[in-house]
Amino acid sequence: MRQTRSVEIGTGLFVLLGMSALFFLTTQTTGGDDFEADSVFVVEARFENIGSLRERAPVTMSGVTIGRVTGVNFDPLTLEAVVEFVIDARYDQIPEDTDASILTSGILGSQYVGLQAGGSDIYLEDGSEILFTQSAIVLENLIGKFLVNAGSKDEE
Amino acid sequence: MGDGSDNLIEIRNLKYSRGARPIFDGLDLNIRRGEVTAIMGPSGTGKTTLLRLITRQLIPQQGTILVDGIDISTLNTSHLYQLRRRFGMLFQNGALLTDLSVFENVAFPLREHTNLSDRLIRHIVLTKLHAVGLRGAAGLMPAELSGGMARRVALARAMVMDPDILIYDEPFVGLDPISMGVIVRLVRRMNDALGITSIIVSHDVQEVATVADCSYLLSDGQVAASGSPDELSTATSVLVRQFMHGMADGPVAFHYDAPSYEEQLLGRDS
Amino acid sequence: MHRTAQDIYDSFVEFARTFGAFQLFFLRLLRHSPSMLTSRFGVVVGQVYNAGALSLVIVMVCGLFVGAVLALQAYSNMSRFNAEDWTGVAAALALLKELGPVMTAILFAGRAGTALTSEIGLMKATDQLSAMEMMAVNPVRRVVVPRFLGGVIAMPLLAAVFSAVGLFGAHLVGVELFQVDVGSFWQQIQLMVEPADVREGIYKSIVFGIAASLIAVWEGYNTVPTAEGVGRATTRTVVITAITVLVFDFMITAVLI
Question: Is residue A155 part of a domain?
Fold first, then answer.
């Protein structure tokens, strides 16, 4: 009987350790989830080009994460990318003419949505659309432009 | 029980071969209810194979094996398992489950086949262990037992489901004289006290003579001789006499088949 | 010439037969698994202990050093681009997606797999399996299935432990030894590792757990019942498991990417 007992204890400890390792891996290595909110409101923005922005990307203002991208769609009529994101309901005084741009963390890092406050008295609310947007900077395009500029300068 | 015939097991015209080598070639054999029957023969005559055929661990290529009037080759798996519960088998070295204690080994069939309470299982197991004189060893692991003790535990395990037929595969091999005597006495006692039919496969002539009611001597895939131990030891057949009296040369030759000695020494064989 | 063709044909037929028997064996295990899990859970728990708890030490030690050496390599390469912060990311992705499941499966084959093979092989060689059959107990159900299930349950947990301890090893080298900032070390990991990466590792460890356990019990159950046969079967377990795991790893990665 004592032998069964130690086997049971050993198995229990092993499974607990395995489960906590699994828990550690799923929670601590992924997401970078510093965004948590009890209630949120949905905002939409249209971009010409979203680069490699993905669902779950953070939405930040002054460098603080205040929301998260919940959907990336393509509008076949206007040929624009429609990005849907949620913002923590505590931040209900964001001016309506706020500017949204797609930024990159570091040179090679992942992309996120950065909000730049406007000056309006009307605030964003559930279902609002941000009208002023700035597309992702695509490195290839940038280099292309730089080369074209350099070329035209030479001609002068 | 059954049709009242004296024979619990009847083997008719059994043929079985392994590869090209025939092991049984038209074997006929009866095992009478309530007796101790010994099956003897020189090594390699397929004694163990016969046991495996009787318990249908192997299937004969030809012929029938009737156990209590039922042709066992026709049984499906669940009927076969029902039939096997009527058998208790003692393997050559006991075949105790090495990861279980002596107690749990004997309790194993009960735990697998019944829903008895722990108390009742304990009671039955200790009774059976007591019968083989090893109640005190209940807590030991199989690795801590001597060869004779392991076989006695295996006997207790074989008895635990109260079988009708007990089969012993070489129960006397490699035992010291005392253990041997203990096993011989147990075989006889189990058979008589519980009304069991016993089958012993062995080549230990002396021990078999003291315990068996009837012996079969196998050779060349057939029964070479049969009868009570006394009848066999006074038989006139050369083969029977060679086997019963342990003579080195005879029908079973001392020399393995070889080219002529002279030729080989002179290097003419290649 | 005629002979060789015949030989090739024969060995092909033999290969097909073995492979088919292997599949049927797998199906038999699956058929008996649910009843074993529900009615004889205690027997399965004992095997989780044998396969999992007893492999824990070797898995943790190896995990620690694999994680440490990954961080060492990553740091020395990343520092050339002034990207030391990425040390953790490189180690984490390598551990979670590849080395965690693969190394654990191979360690499992060496530690638990060989034990399973030789245990079942010895039970066969000492007539224990025949004895069970004579007691009207199906040895596949009673002996093989619990050992198979124990391995299947243990493997994902072992792989998770390997990766977690590996990350700790990477942390030791990156943060403690090379003074990478602890905040950016972990933040980069969290930014760059996707839930899909963790899932990939879990899927792999489940598949490897089934494959490694199946091969180990198959080799044990089909051992030539002699001392030499058992020795040969354990060697085959390690070799075949290692090859199978690496081939499956490639296939799963190719499908998931």
Answer: no
Asked whether C213 and C152 are in contact (CB, 8 A), the reply is yes
Q: Are residues A98 and A53 in the same domain?
A: yes
Long-range contacts of C204-207 (CB under 8 A, 24+ apart): C204/C97, C204/C101, C204/C102, C204/C159, C204/C248, C204/C249, C204/C252, C205/C100, C205/C101, C205/C104, C205/C105, C205/C155, C205/C156, C205/C158, C205/C159, C205/C160, C206/C152, C206/C155, C206/C156, C207/C248, C207/C252
Instruction: Read off φ and ψ for residue B166, nearest 5 degrees.
Output: -115, 130
Q: Do residue A15 and residue C195 have CB atoms under 8 angstroms apart?
A: no
Are A19 and A57 in a shared domain? no
**Whether the Cβ atoms of residue B122 and residue B159 lie closer than 8 Å to each other:** no
Q: What is the pTM of this model?
A: 0.77
Q: From the list C122, C127, C137, which residue is nearest B91 (CB)? A: C127
Which residues 187-216 in chain C show a CB within 8 A of chain A? 187, 189-195, 197-198, 201-202
Same domain, A132 and A97: yes
Q: Which of A19, A25, A32 sits opposite C187 (nearest CB)?
A: A32
Q: What pLDDT, in 10s, does the model give residues C192-220?
A: 888 888 999 999 999 999 999 999 999 99
Same domain assignment for residues A63 and A138: yes
Number of domains making up chain C: 1
Q: C touches which chains (3+ CB pairs under 8 A)?
A: A, B
A3 reaches C (C-beta below 8 A):
no
Chain C touched by A9 (CB under 8 Å): no
- Give the chain C residue whose CA is nearest to the CA of B51: C134
Average pLDDT over residues C178-185: 84
CATH number of B1-85+213-270: 3.40.50.300
